[in-house]
Structures are given as structure tokens and as C-alpha cells.
Amino acid sequence: MRFVYYGANVECTLRTTKVTPSMKYLFSTILLVTCVSAVAQTKKGQTIWTAHINSQFVQTLQTPVKSPRYSHGGSGEVSFFIRDELAIGVGAKGSWDGYRLDIGDSESLKMESKTSTSSVNPFMRKYWQLSPFTIYAGVGADLAFSKNKSLQYAVGQAYDDRVNRSVNIAAQAQLGVIYPLTSRLGLEFGARSNLFPLTVNTARLGLLLFTGSETKTRAENSPESPLTKGRWLLSGSFGYTVNAGHTADTNGRFEYRTPATSIELAPALFMRDRLLVGIGIFAGFQGGVLNTPEKAAFVTVGDKKPVLVGLRPFLRKYLSPTKLTPYLEGYASYDRIMGGGGPATNTYNAGGKLGLAYILGKNWIVEANLLGVAGGYSEVGENRNEIATIGGVERFHVKLNAGFKPDFTISYVFR
After folding, report:
1. pLDDT class of 356 with cuts at 50, 70, 90
2. Cα 141 to Cα 147: distance, rounded to the nearest angstrom
């Protein structure tokens, strides 16, 4: 028996509805960004921005153990054009992760770990227009700092207290391509490499915001929209990974291989113009798919291999009948891990999204999630066997993602 446990070119039309002042400012800002012509902005005095934040908190309960875990991170970058097609800028990012393990109500045993990383990246870039794309190349420096602190103590007395710090400075080369969706919003694919040796160590895909006094806001008519009543779309995902290797000591050699497969299909129907109702059907096989932070745990007995099955109904509203439109989505999900020979794991989630959808031709939609908020609960019951009884596990989680480094989804709309 094995018990696995693991600690954001078109003309805009608006429908007036009663909204709060904060919602009015939010939607007005989004529509201003999307309702403009696609002209890249690289003139003197203009600026390019991007930013992203993420946060997650997970609380795990397994009597008499309490185990809170948190993870927070953020990044941002700004480029200011000092001359036409020549910019200087700076990027910064940081992450803060922590974990705590309390056993019982007393001070009998506690463990705590905190890790923080940060970096600053000044740079200079040269831009070239290759319509409709903008290409850039640049050089910069990457200054990275990290700190790790771990503490373990029993009966109120520290017996292991460690602190590790590191600093790294490296010269950096930068390459990237920008595709302007509008004159205020662009899609970037970029790569970063250390200069010595020249090895690409970071690739990124995200959105950029263009600002400046000369930024154009000329509107254009949109093509025929596929977001009409009676049409339906199909989206989905597939993933396959393998974790393999071996360990060896004086007792011999042990080889391991853990494949993981996941699949999801999500058919949906436009019940009204720009109002989509759908349901996602997903499944996961093998341990790697089941070891996610939202899951409490799962049980396997012998050679039995548990599977995950789940449903995710959702409702999505596109806010404008244009080629580039913001959307709102709400969803709930339920999944179950079963077939491992022990108690099943049940997980319940709910959340909301704010994003942008870009219509490609008459049938394709590319969507980017700019803001996501989710929370959920997962539990697996007590596991009894001939050797011992393992207590049930409960897990609560809350998650936030926001910014211009979104998840992208491509969907096909059928007639």
C-alpha cells in the first residue's frame, strides 16, 4: 500500500447596465485598451508595460497535523523610448514561499521553511518594424538575490536553524517579437540568454500595454463575429509527461518511471449572442496528474492505479461584438480520484475569470485569462488496513492570478 501526500481594429458598441462605480472604471479601462487600431508604438516618449502577480494559500489538515503553505510572486517590466525605436528599461520580479508543519497542539514538533527570491534587470533595446511585427534585440544585466530559512524545533527548543543567502550577477542578451493586437495592446514572444556562455535560459509569451501621448486610438470596423446564438465551440487540452530515473546505494539500485496523462474536452453552446454555456469533461491517469496542490491526497494499494474524472460547467459572457473583446467567466468543478483500492478523493472548486478574446477569421478564437480567482476544498477519507489506520486528509485552497502573462486557449467555433 502507498499513501501519497504532497504538502489579462475594432469599433466598440456598449450596452448600458447598472453597475457599481468600481465595475464601471474597470470595464471602461478594458474597453479603451481593446477598442483601437492595431498600430505598433515605438516613438520617442512612448512606453511599454507588462506585469503579473500570483498568489496561493493551501491549508492541509490531517489529525493531529496542521500544514499551511503559501506562495506569492510578482513581476513587472517597463520600457521607455528615449529615441524612435530605441528604449531603456528595467524589469523586476520576486517570489515568497513558505511552509509550516505543526504536530499536535503542543510544541512537541514544528517545522518551518521560508524562501524568497528577487531580481532586477536593467536593459537597453533596439526595435525594428517589420509590418505587422516589431522585432527587438537588447542587452542588459540580471541581478538576482535569494534567501532560504528553515527552522525545526521540539518542545520549544530549536535544534536546527539554517539560513542560506546567494547573489548572482550576469550579463544578458534579449530577443523578442511583438505582434500588435491594437495600438495599445500587443502579444510578445521573447527569449533571454546569458551572454557567457550564450544559452537561452528563459522564454516567455505574454501581453504588452503601450502608453504615451502619441498613442493612436483610431477605431476600425470588426469582421463577422462567430459569437452568435446557435453556434457552438469545442476546446480542450492534452498533456503527457514522464518522470524517470534511478537511485542507488549499498542495498542496490532502484529505478522508477512515473508517467502522467491528462485530457479535457469542453463543448459549449451560444445560448444568446456572446453568451456561452458549456461543460468541461476531464480525466487524469497516473500519479503525476494526481499530485496537484489542490488535491488532499490519494491512495494506491498494490499495483492498482487510480484515475481522476471530473466535470466543470461554466458560463462565459463576451462584453463586445468586436474582434478583440473582454469576457467574464464563472465556473464550478467536481472531480474524483478513485480505483486505487482505498478511499476516493473528492475535490470541489469554484472561481471566476476576466480575460480577452481575439477572433481569428470566422471560426477561431484565442483567449487569454488576465485575472483569475479560485477556491476549493478536497478530502480523502480514513484508510484502514491490516497494518495501520491512516487518518483522513482535508485541504482548503485559495488562488489568485492577474497580469499580462496569461494562460492562452484556442477554440474552434462550429456553425
Report:
1. very high
2. 20
CA angle, 239 as apex, 345 and 396 as ends, to 5°? 30
The predicted model scores a pTM of 0.77
Report the distance separating Cα 349 and Cα 65, nearest Å.
23
DSSP 226: S
Tens of pLDDT, residue by residue over 281-290, are 999 887 656 7
Determine the pLDDT at residue 288.
57
Same topology between domain 1-35+220-415 and domain 37-218:
yes
1-35+220-415, CATH topology level: Porin (2.40.160)
Cα–Cα distance measured from residue 382 to residue 302, given in angstroms and rounded to the nearest whole number = 18
CATH number of 37-218: 2.40.160.20
Domain boundaries, the chain: 1-35+220-415, 37-218
Cell numbers 503527457: residue? 240
**How far apart are the C-alpha atoms of 171 and 216, rounded to whole Å?**
35
pLDDT, tens digit, 9 for 90 and up, residues 110-132: 788 999 999 999 999 999 999 88
Predicted confidence at residue 25, as pLDDT, reads: 44
Closest by CA position to 192, among listed 201, 183, 184:
201
Q: What is the rounded CA–CA span in Å between residue 110 and residue 158?
A: 9
Q: Is the pLDDT of residue 17 over 60?
A: no
Please report where in the chains the cell 461554466 appears, as a residue: 314
